[in-house]
Amino acid sequence: MTNADTAPRSFQEIILRLQNYWARQGCAILQPYDMEVGAGTFHPATTLRSLGSRPWAAAYVQPSRRPTDGRYGENPNRLQHYYQYQVLIKPSPPQLQALYLGSLDAIGIDTGLHDIRFVEDDWESPTLGAWGLGWEVWCDGMEVSQFTYFQQVGGHDCKPVSGELTYGLERLAMYVLGVDHVMDMPFNDPDAPIPLTYGDVFRQTEQEYSRWNFDQADTEMLFQHFKDAEAECERILAAPQPDKAGRTIVMAHPAYDQAIKASHLFNLLDARGVISVTERQAYIGRVRTLAKKCADAFVTTEAGGGAAVAGA
Amino acid sequence: MPDLLIELFSEEIPARMQARAREDLKRLVTDGLVQAGLTYASAGAFSTPRRLTLTIEGLTAESRPVREERKGPRADAPAAALEGFLRSTGLTKDQLELRDDKKAQVWFAVIEKPGRSAQAIVAEVLEAAIRDFPWPKSMRWGSGSLRWVRPLHTILCQMTTEAGAEVVALDVDGIKAGNTTEGHRFMGAGRFAVHSFDDYRAKLLRAKVMLDSAEREAHILADAQNAAFAAGLEMVPDAGLLTEVAGLVEWPVVLMGRIPDAFLDLPPEVLQTSMKEHQKFFSLKNPATGRIEGFVTVANRETPDDGATILKGNLKVLSARLSDAKFFWENDIRTVDSESLGAMTAMLALVTYQNSLGSIWDRIPRLSSLSEQIVSDLGGKKEDAKEACYIMKSDLRTQTVREFPELQGVIGRYLALHEGHPAHIAEICASHYAPLGPSDAVPNEVTAIAVSLAEKLDTLTGFWVLNEKPTGSKDPYALRRSAIGAIRIIVANQVRLSLIQYIRQALTMNESARQRWAMDANPNLSATFPEPEAKDLLAFFHDRLKVHLRDEGIRHDVIDACLAPLPSAATSAAGPGNDDLTLLVKRAEALAAFLKTEDGGNLIQGFKRANNILTQAEEKDGVEYSYGADVKFAETDEERALFAALDAAEARIKPAMAAEDFGQAMAAMASLRAPIDAFFEAVQVNSDNAVVRRNRLNLLSRIRQICLSVADLTRIEG
What we know:
The complex is a heterodimer. Helices cover about 40% and strands about 20% of the residues of chain A. Chain A has helices at about 10-25, 45, 95-105, 170-175, 200-215, 220-240, 250-270, 275-300; strands at about 30, 55-65, 80-90, 115-120, 125, 130-140, 140-155, 155, 165-170. In chain A, strands 1, 2, 3, 4, 5, 6, 7, 8 and 9 form a nine-stranded mixed sheet that branches. The mean pLDDT of chain A is about 90. By secondary structure, chain B is α+β, with helices and mostly antiparallel strands. In chain B, about 50% of the residues lie in helices and about 15% in strands. Chain B is flat. The interface of A and B includes residues 122 and 134 of A.
């Protein structure tokens, strides 16, 4: 069934259609992770769950923060806070490309009228110690998604391989809805009693966060928080002691939260311009070390397909 | 004879890998078939974004039986020898034959390998090819362990004879070979079976797939040129982009659009780069205005609206991209107006050049001082070089270059003209990086030559000071390219300079930068460097020069002969060392030409004979025969003639060398050939008369001295 003649009318309708579509394909529809992350990949439902042998299928919206991309709400395309739609299926099914194309149809992109192309794009995340091969997907020359077969995460080979789809929701929706400035995009139905645009929801926050990210964030405090997160992550992972009942619980997720925190703090410091070019690499390396240790811990747990299940 | 058709159908193969993959598939399969004893008439390989295809015609139906005989140990050899032979042949003793061989009886093994069917061989060879395919990057997918460039979906493998087509039985990690394929992802209609290559190609075409990339390229080019022509524009040729785009589509559809007026005043390089890098558009130029005014994009499908939606979408993306570019460019112009290029250059203090050598700004005084020195030695103006050095890197501060790093220099040139610098100075913003590759032009204006040389010398000496020299295949800072660039500038412009002197100067400046940066400057030490480092860098230049001249067809031993230092007595007082590359090349060319003549080849033989006799005598006698040959001790006419010839030649060679007329010097040397030959014909050097012998050895020494004053002929081979 094609959806091309029932074009969506708002940002939220596109999200809802994606949720419905991937639910119909059997994905667990998860909720956003409740922490600040730079991309949907950081959600433990992707990073950690792509590790180990257990099958997995999840889809979710993830609010993502990239402090350096803030433009005080003035740039038509750039935001410091935006939404990604993320799908992760392990093992990657053979018809994943067809499933993906089905999702474009679901949001009103008629593949009979548009030019959809898979253009080489190798993905690498130096902070997660992860890489994969795939494409950026072009619709009429515009990049609408990233399509990646994960090969390695946190320094571990992915076996089986996960297929990851990432949609940049604002850009995709602007294209589908024919809007030129993100702030003009209808957020809810334009015929609703109280119609809201993206600008009504986010213009003010973009201004406030741009000011804080670029000029006001207390860098001394941020440096301290970075150190604290790093230390806590290491401490949590160092020696999970057996409790009174003799159970040992590897705390991979709480430790990974600290790694996420460190990563976001680094992004904030970067936006404040207080990290030099040489230090940059060192900070990325420190976050990667944390992510790798969390991955090492996760693969020993039950969800990670390892032996060290709770209980000694 | 059967034909073979193979198709490996996968998800989208990166465009840049397809050409190489076609060749690799053809090579791996045909090599494998031939090694297994099959022959074939012809083979062709094709690719689209989703498939690699190989067709082989006239394949033999089975391999020839092979009979191999191996000779083993003698019948009376120790038992261990026979056991070893049995192990290596895999036979038992009763399968061996005992034969008479010369004096003894010897064991022979006869190993018969029966012929195998082509089917079996193809299956084996194709599976090996798939498993060992040399993709630059490959991946796993799903739960499997097979690697391919992207997930491999189906394998078509069949052999066709007059009797019909037959699938080759093959199973690679669960992917079974069959006789079906599919067409275009969106315009095709499901899978279909094929029975021969012609059938395959025809059915693909009906399913909207052009199999041959050359055909797709030709189609794109013709349609794009027609569309441009109809609009009064012309296509800017770009062969690399054409190949890439042809690797992104199975059914190319050319769409043409116009660049919105608001962007037409951007520098054409910005328009071209943005459209090519981000969107893989071809640029269309208006021949009347010289501006880039249109573009061609290549879609992968036909649509009911003849591409209107696709073009509209592409135009929207283009406008967004160019709005960014225009925003950057206008900001950059404003920055130049408010700050000046000089001030922007000073801001490069914030940009690291090399961790241990400080910022890019730190380089500018070094570059300026070196350029000024060189330009005044070449007869140009110091102030021109200085003006260029203090603006030429300013564009590294621009937003445009940050967005399009490949436009560094080009942007600088526009900005320099905008600020009112003369054209030859503005040009240096771009040309001081040149030449960037073997086909890139070298600067030829005197200031540009000086600045470009300074850029390369400062780069090289900086890394020499840090001891980051290229080793083996590792040359992360492209220092070999810097050296070869400097050599090309010097040789192409016949620039005369003493390279070692500038190397020393640049090493000194870089060493002092290193110390300042490391803050280990010791007040008691001046910024000096060990002289061997300067010599080492000169030797690096000489190595590169050898490569350069070898490419020009000059033998390495000829170059070695010219690189060896000349005896100082032979040159004029301020004679050139081997760091004057222009002179070196002239001498090497003259010597190479001389050696190609009959006189030249023979003279070398005469010289070597004289040198050998002399060297042996000196070793035996423990003395050096270098002086005092006197014609009055000459006994024969040939001896006297040689004395006369040497006097005459020396009288010509000295001034010729001083005048750098190497052709003359070589000609004078050539005149020695006949007298030397005649001398050796008639005269026995090692005479019983000690006085005569010593005189003759001293005469040989004169031959050596005179010949060596042109080049070190002992290094000539043959």
